[in-house]
Fold this protein.
Amino acid sequence: MKKTIFTLAIATALMTTIIACSKEETKTTETPTATPTLYERVGGATMVNDPNNTGMMIEQGRLTLRAVVDSSILVIAADTQMTKFFPVLFAELGANNTTGLMALSKNFTDFMCFATGCKNASYLYTGMNMKDAHNPAKNNRMGVKASKADFDKFVGDIGIGLAKNGVTAANNEKLVNDLVALLYTTEADIVQQ
Ligand code: HEM
């Protein structure tokens, strides 16, 4: 009987120690720091002067993405593989009408802001979904359906747009890779031939 009580006492003491130790482990576990979003990595919500609109402020993240979008549109416009996709836009520009260009710049920037994790409701994307926007039957501004090769070339042009803004694989490989990976999440909707 004495032996049983002694064994029980040791077992209880051991259990208490094990529980205490595991509690200690929980206590010392470090709080994980939140991984910054892509939007934060390109400048985030910090307000800065908008160089394109005197007296207006803009989030640094949006400013970066808008600059990349605008540079990329220029690269795409000069890329002969892209000409057939933008008949309406180019006709407008030929007639000195920049309305469509401004709308594309805004919509593409809004899209990139939200895709990268921007939370500012005033930058909400209100354009078409990616499938309809790139289907000539739903969007007459899209000349013809894009192939996988066209998609790859388009992303390559955005890569040049990024480089024009100082972001290259040589100086920020991870950011370039993460942005390109984000663009590729739209491939299944956009490549329609
Ligand atoms: C790489 C991923 C791409 C993204 C994130 C993207 C995003 C967008 C967005 C947000 C719009 C505006 C839609 C609207 O105004 O409702 C748009 C329009 C358009 N996209 Fe894309 N796009 C991509 C790839 C492509 C490719 C590969 C092509 C052609 C090869 C293409 C051709 C067009 C055309 C022609 C328009 C209409 C332009 C206009 O307003 O005249 N896009 N795209």
